[in-house]
Sequence to fold (559 residues):
Amino acid sequence: MPIYLPIAEMTVDVFLLLGMGAVIGFLSGMFGVGGGFLMTPLLIFIGVPPAVAVASQANQIVASSVSGVFAHWRRGNVDFKMGLVLLAGGIAGSFVGAGIFTLLEKIGQVELLISLSYVFFLGIIGFMMLFESVGALVKQKRGTMKRRKLHQHTFLHGLPFKMRFRRSKLYISAMLPLGIGFLVGILSAIMGVGGGFIMVPAMIYLLGVPTNVVVGTSLFQIIFVSANVTFLHAVATQTVDAMLALLLLAGAVIGAQFGTRFSSRLRGEYVRGLLALMVVIVCGKMAYDLVATPLDAYSISVIGDE
Amino acid sequence: MRHWIPCFLLTLAMALPAASARAAAPLLTDISSHLVSVTSSFTGTDLLIFGAIDTVPDAPRGDIVIVVRGPAQDVVVRRKERVAGIWVNSTAFTFKSLPGFYAVAASAPLAEILSASQARRLEVGSENLRFTPEKGLGDPEAPLFKTALIRNRLRDGLFSRETATVSFLGGTLFRANIHIPANVPVGSYTASIYLFRDGDIIEGQTTSLLIQKFGVGRTIFDFAHDQPFFYALIAVLLALLSGWAAALFFRRD
Fold:
């Protein structure tokens, strides 16, 4: 059943969008990530203009993180204080990111920016996760799993403006979560992602936030950052396709429920390893597109009607 | 009351030559629809352009050429070049007043109907379209970008690769189908219909039609562009609500 997307200005099959939403939702439920990093490239792949893909995806992430945060909230796994500090950084970052995006769209380099950001960040995160999960599996086989400390003290803990985060059992400089929030805010505006895939490892490895609090807290702040990103894109470039976002969302919500149920049957190392593999594949595809000789070196874009 | 009759006759007398002149017009044309609505289920449509030509017995019938043009647009053409192994958009040319859609139909191969100079003058055939770069008119690379622009438009189906057929029914009636793809730009279109005989243009007519977004899609598009702030507000609220509803619906307690 075809449907005309009013902002993307193209006709797509409804079931294709619902199906994409369901598959990505399933994966995001299974791996506990937003799935934006998979959805945005997929949307671009089916012909949605990159600017529309990024902006509409931000709108969809608002919904999926709201639906995800409730379960964590009920279990008390949201550190609101930490979330608000991350958020302050995130809002500032998303202004900067949206500014860069708008500027580069004018000079025709926005696709390059999106691809480069994807290749760079997915590459780093993907390989780190892959090594970590393979390493964990190997260690487990050898039976040499050491019990880790709660967190290690590094120079990061010597920074000023210390703040106490009760639920995370941390006493650290507020500059750290502010900075991480800021960076992820920029990426969120540029890549059309919630940024969970960067936020989560950063919170675990850099801040030492306990794993059970990480996902809920990151989801909590992603809601507001992606709401802000949606706002900025809608006002600056009118590229938010609410119809597209709603269709993806409908599929994603259902898919996510099945994904969550399925993941409880798999071992954590396998789940992380699979996710890493997927991240590396998406990264590889985008890197290939950057390097491979394009079919037509010339591309066109309409800049104004008379 | 008596004054009405001469008055009526006078009007009739004046109208008659006009009416007969119209009947003698060599070309009468129309389009199946002057308003195409792009609704939320729009997958493209076919425009039927039809008409009649007035033929003189024993004279050649003549040939019909139809040119359909979409709204004028400004288009940037960018060329990717390899920079440190990566393909990056570098050189760019901006072209003004390029039709957003362009299609030609003819009753015979174009070369048999009109001369190359006539084709250029009437802009028949995408290679004869007149559009110039905003800057760098004399740049030796400009023609490369112009060809690339046409190639991209052909690939998107917005310029037609082949000339559509104008078919004749009997001696005087003709019809042609012009396919309008799903990705056409909205705006005002023109259809120019020319009658040629022995390499001379006998008559030309231009009618206009409107392609408009309609229904929900139109409302969303207008709202997003006219009230971006409130559009964003509603988009975000909608997302918050549907996320919340989903959480409630799938709650496992």
